[in-house]
Design goal:
Blueprint (H helix, E strand, L loop, with lengths): L7 H6 L2 H9 L3 H13 L2 E6 L1 H16 L5 E5 L3 H4 L7 E7 L5 H14 L2 E6 L5 H4 L3 E4 L12 H21 L4 H23 L1 H11 L4 E6 L2 H17 L2 E6 L16 E6 L5 H12 L4 E7 L4 H4 L3 E5 L5 H5 L2 H18 L18
Parallel strand pairs: 1-2, 1-3, 3-4, 4-5, 6-7, 6-8, 8-9, 9-10
Helix pairs in contact: 2-8, 2-9, 3-8, 4-8, 4-11, 8-9, 8-15, 9-15, 10-15, 11-15
The structure holds fructose -6-phosphate.
Length: 362
């Protein structure tokens, strides 16, 4: 875009609108044969590691939220131990930026060679090992990602998974033709939303500055946003070295609330979806024990904003189509926030210590 950036991570985050646009415009034929293979299976699994796993988790929710079949998400490092007796006629959707992650390759080879599963992969690197072991491949449009922590790759993975979920909904007729079109239009609008988030990134930077001295932070959400909380927490942990924990907000009272004291920061991902009013209950539980509430909300939000110390507002429209397709804008915001915190702390966001771009050991 002609601008110069201090770090690759920041440059690559600014590529997100263009990259997700390319993904959303991907050839229909590639999507069709991928989805056909998924729908022919009796059991559907989705597997990946790290950030790619959080994209996979979002995919699982997207497919079920749009009325599709149950998808079981399993970390690739846990795949074999979770499924010593893998059911026949299964399909495994594998998600990976590099296509070389050893745990991912091991899981899908096990599924394919020992149990005859079909492998459908969503991969960024053309010609990688994962593409060679797969029956169907969707190539993500992120292009070369240099920063070690995945961000634009994540955004394209989730855009691809949204397309898959919508195509399944279309084939299963869980929504009318007109409604499917509205969801698709809303998905395309995430490109402009991402652009607007980046134009207004100074606001996210301000919140980043406020949390940059924290040593512990909880990330909490419900439903599909739990996957966003997990990704937000991982990014902040790996590039800003803050101890973060993410979990489903309903779990708060089953243990983690014990740590809450005056000023303990809790970041709530609070889109106005079916989880909203229950999430408010969880926010109140934390607030009444003194937690500092930082929330990521829709532009038009009022209720969560009222009970929060700080909010980051996501410029989405107030309709069910925009809300159902808003996961990428929410996560992009959390990734940007992690980037700003890292930069504030004078760290190198591109090369976090102890991490490698592609993990080829089990
Ligand atoms: C985190 C991150 C890692 C990778 C994980 C899987 O920011 O980048 O968690 O997502 O190692 O890598 P791929 O996607 O190459 O399989």
């Amino acid at each position: 875009d002609g601008k110069s950036y201090k770090w690759f991570m920041h440059k690559e985050l600014h590529e997100v609108p263009r990259k997700i646009k390319e993904q959303i415009m991907m050839p229909q034929e590639d999507l069709d044969s991928f989805v056909k293979t998924i729908l022919e299976a009796e059991r559907i699994f989705i597997t990946a590691a790290g950030t790619a796993f959080y994209a996979a988790l979002a995919g699982k929710f997207l497919i079920s939220n749009f009325g599709g079949p149950y998808v079981e998400a399993i970390l690739c490092s846990e795949f074999i131990d979770t499924l010593p007796n893998m059911p026949e006629n299964s399909v495994v959707i594998a998600v990976s930026q590099s296509g070389e992650t050893a745990d991912t390759i091991e899981a899908i080879r096990y599924a394919r060679e020992k149990h005859g599963a079909k492998i459908c992969s969503i991969v960024n690197v053309v010609g990688s090992s994962l593409t060679r072991y797969s029956d169907e491949v969707i190539i993500t449009t992120a292009g070369l990602e240099i920063a070690v922590a995945s961000q634009k790759a994540y955004c394209t993975q989730v855009s691809a998974l949204t397309l898959i979920a919508l195509r399944i909904a279309e084939l299963k007729e869980t929504y009318s033709v007109e409604e499917i079109k509205k969801f698709r239009d809303a998905l395309l609008k995430t490109v402009d939303i991402a652009e607007n988030i980046l134009i207004e990134e100074g606001k996210i930077r301000e919140i980043g500055e406020k949390i940059s001295n924290e040593t512990n932070i909880y990330f909490l959400a419900r439903g599909i946003s739990t996957s966003a909380a997990l990704e937000g927490a991982l990014k902040l942990k790996e590039i800003a070295y803050i101890h973060t924990e993410a979990y489903a907000a309903g779990e708060s009272k089953h243990g983690p609330i014990a740590l809450i004291e005056e000023g303990f920061p809790c970041i709530f991902i609070a889109p106005p979806d079916a989880t909203y009013s229950r999430l408010i209950g969880n926010i109140m539980e934390m607030k009444s024990r003194g937690a500092k509430i930082i929330s990521v909300v829709a532009d038009f939000d009022e209720n969560v904003t009222e009970i929060s110390d700080y909010t980051i507002r996501i410029p989405i429209e107030n309709n069910k189509y925009a809300i159902a397709t808003s996961i990428v804008p929410f996560v992009l915001t959390l990734q940007l926030m992690a980037y700003f915190v890292s930069d504030f702390k004078g760290l190198d966001p591109d090369k976090p210590k102890n991490l490698a771009k592609s993990v080829t050991v089990k």
